[in-house]
Amino acid sequence: MIEVFKTNVHKAGEARRLVALLLNHFPGNKINFDLDDCDKVLRVEGRNFVTEQVMNLMQQSGFQCAVLE
Prior knowledge:
Layout: E1 2-7, H1 12-25, E2 30-34, E3 41-45, H2 51-60, E4 65-67
Antiparallel strand pairs: 1-3, 1-4, 2-3
């Protein structure tokens, strides 16, 4: 499963911290940000993650996160 999210993450350091947080909750997935994209895209690929939990973790960390349609 692949899910793509629109975020408001702007700094590489924030992105690295968030990737580490998400990988801690969803190990074995491929998680990355594309901060050059206008939507500051977060991409999660794998089998063992829940879209709503990804969004909740991002929001609890102080960032906006919504499924990109």
